[in-house]
Amino acid sequence: MSGAGVYCQELKHQEDQLALQYLPAVKAMSFRLKERLPSSIDYMDLSAIGTEELVKLARRYDEAQNDSFWGYAKTRVYGAMLDYLRSLDVVSRASRRLIKEIDVAIERHLLQNDNEPTNKELAIILGIEEEKIHEARIASDIYTVLPLDDQLGNECDGGTLERMEHEELVDVIKDVLMGFDDREQMIIQLYYFEELTLKEIGEIINITESRISQIHKSVIRRIKETVRG
Questions:
Q1: Residues 151 and 178 in one domain
Q2: DSSP letters along 6-53, please?
Q3: Do residue 118 and residue 71 come from a single domain?
Q4: Domain containing 102: what range?
Q5: Tens-place pLDDT, residues 19-68
């Protein structure tokens, strides 16, 4: 083998070793994201997507430009997993309408009964097949894991979000959150920025997952209304 061939083989070995070094971190990231998703999403799929992206990044990593490989790769690996969730295309326009109807029905039921209705109860309330309720709630659970930009962008007509600078959107979100009490602000902080599950948030602030879910959706709804003006 020529000197150039030996060098290329050694370089590829180093790149693969770099990927292997951070494979446990990718698996942990996949597991953590899976905890926030419905059971229909497979952990192995998330892990495979993350690992594939990790290997690609290791093979084009230039330590002269980035002194921390994981600092360079982490956001991109997580982004690849989110791209996979987006590709599932579970939230059609029709299912978004049904999700809204379900959210309203749940909120009313919580006020009247202090507990969340089952899918069977929702099917009776809304006059819709239970299977459609089940599918819409799975879609909603996947949808709420995506960044706020995705959720707002899918709901805003006429490219409203596209016309806004990122800083403007951040300011809108901050202004809306200021209208909520400390507990509600904490829920959004823990869910989107600390990436805790609803169950973990419930244990921290001692309220039910159902109530946390409704507060979360109420905040998102207010932000959407503000963005649309």
A1: yes
A2: HHHHHHHHHHHHHHHHHHHHHHHHHHHHHHTS-TTS-HHHHHHHHHHH
A3: no
A4: 90-143
A5: 889 999 999 999 999 998 888 889 999 999 999 999 999 888 877 676 78
